Task: structure prediction
Amino acid sequence: MTTEIDKAAFQEGYKVGMPTWFGVGAWGLVVGVAMIKAGLSVPQALGMTLIVFAGSAQLASLPLIAAHAPLWVIFTTALVVNLRFVIFSAILAPHFSHLSWRTKAVMGYLTGDISVALFMQKYPEFVETQGKLAYLKGLVYPNWSSWQIGSIIGILLGSQIPASWGLGFAGTLAILCVMLPAVVNKAAVLGVFVAGVAAVLAAGLPYKLGLLLAVLMGMSAAMVLEEWLEKLHAPEGEA
Result:
């Protein structure tokens, strides 16, 4: 019975995630090209995409790698960009706390933004039910595969495309495609504005530290405004 439930749950997750595969693959392709144009060799780029599996952190780290920034700057930047995964982990923890640490580690590596969003649409609150892990696997396995296929194609294409084509800007365009749909409220707008202004004003800092500073300032501004708006609109007596 459990096997049948898991099989049905996996197929459901597979079908729910199917419309996102092309976009994920295209995003991976752009990041693959960007890795090559940032100066990584094909083996280095393949190793990065297979081990890291974090497009936004990869794109944020690439200019730092190209600028030969210190390792602590590169790791700190990637850590800041991926802070949202701490929130994702907290959201998923109640559903999968019973799993072994190895299974949780593997699923943590495979789980991306879209998979978390689709899983939470199915399970917005914690419920005791079977098939949740199989449903998540149906989301993350194809998502990871789409990313890797697109990224590897991008790496191979990027190694053949002349630098004169100017595809080094592809990574920035990809970031914009991901960022703009996420700007859905006043806090997000303020965060983007503050981060943009900070990035321009701090462009002269060494080791690309302006990028890290812009991310921190943008996130802080958005969080402060969001908290203030929540208190402003909270029912009287709850603020």
